[in-house]
Write a structure and sequence with these properties.
Length: 221
């Protein structure tokens, strides 16, 4: 035997017909940064709920405002003549935060979703900062990328020009905690001193990470 308590809320304007007029867009960010999603509903809206992987994380009620239950999920609100925009901000994103972000309304029940991809910028290095090579001698230069997500794309450059992919071999391996490693070996026969650059890139990086090595050419005579 138990008593069930039912709460009724009266929300004025239930007769209004409103809808989502601007859906959130997919976002790719680096771990440790903030991710932002915008959802715009038309005039007359009542309740807007943000869900992360199916779980409610923030609710916005008209006209009271946002109900925030976690410091990691906050919001900013913008009102215009066309409607109301709620911006969901996810702070200090981690790799495990990758998933589905959903904007949902009530009366009528409508939802729109986007996906968050959190990427990790790992380390990149060439073991030797300088190398010496003599005439007609082939040199192998190793570039190592550790603890990235996803595994980075590796490229090589010399004198501001990309080196043909046939000159190097890149292997990828699974690291720990869902992270990835990459090992790239460049094979060259030089005729002059050159500065070689290894570049590692993922979508969330504004510019590829790079590591350089100076290969000093010594004439055998």
């Amino acid at each position: 035997m138990y008593l069930e308590t039912v709460f009724f809320f009266f929300l004025p304007g239930l007769g209004f017909c409103y809808s989502i007029i601007n859906s959130p867009a997919n976002a790719t960010v680096l771990a440790g940064s903030d991710a932002r999603f915008n959802c715009t509903v038309s005039v007359g809206w009542l309740i807007l709920i943000w869900l992360f992987n199916g779980n409610p994380v923030l609710t916005v009620i008209n006209p009271q405002g946002a109900i925030e239950t976690s410091d990691r999920f906050t919001s900013r609100n913008y009102t215009s003549s066309n409607g109301f925009t709620s911006e969901l901000i996810i702070h200090n994103t981690q790799l495990s935060d990758s998933g589905k972000i959903e904007c949902s309304t009530q009366q009528p029940n409508e939802s729109s979703f986007a996906f968050l991809s959190v990427q990790v910028n790992g380390s990149l290095f060439i073991k030797n900062s300088t190398l010496t090579v003599t005439e007609n001698k082939t040199v192998e230069i190793v570039c190592e990328a550790l603890e990235w997500a996803p595994a980075p794309d590796i490229a090589w450059m010399t004198n501001d020009s990309f080196i043909d992919k046939s000159r190097y071999v890149t292997q990828q391996s699974q690291g720990s905690n869902g992270l990835h490693n990459a090992l790239s070996i460049l094979t060259l026969t030089l005729v002059d001193t050159e500065i070689l650059t290894c570049l590692a890139d993922i979508e969330a990086l504004p510019n590829p990470q790079n590591a350089t090595v100076t290969v000093i050419f010594v004439n055998s005579t």
